[in-house]
Design brief:
two-stranded antiparallel ribbon, 1 helix, little secondary structure
């Protein structure tokens, strides 16, 4: 199955593959849809419908661009911007020779 073989999880719309070589793309290849977003879910605490026992397993769903825009207008899309913390201040290192105690 390819990403573009999936339909929009909200409206059921068939998706358009991105790229001209879609017909020759084998099943399982990662040809993304050109008119939708792809989401991966590894399960989460609280939900009991999907609880994989391995980090190597996940679900993939797609939602078409018009549905994302409509849901964003209704306040149902959360945008998260991760901030990278600045690195800790690095003091220059200077070698202090060891001196034998007297």
């Amino acid at each position: 199955m390819r990403y573009c073989d999936l339909a929009c999880i909200r409206c059921g719309k068939a998706l358009t593959p991105c790229g001209p070589d879609f017909a020759s793309t084998p099943p399982g290849a990662s040809t993304p849809p050109g008119d939708a977003l792809i989401f991966m879910a590894r399960g989460n605490y609280g939900s009991t419908i999907y609880d994989p026992q391995s980090e190597m397993e996940y679900l993939i769903v797609v939602i078409c661009d018009p549905c994302v825009v409509a849901q964003a207008a209704g306040g149902n899309v959360m945008r998260v911007q991760k901030r990278v913390a600045p690195p800790p201040r690095q003091e220059p290192w200077t070698h202090t020779p060891y001196e034998e105690p007297e």
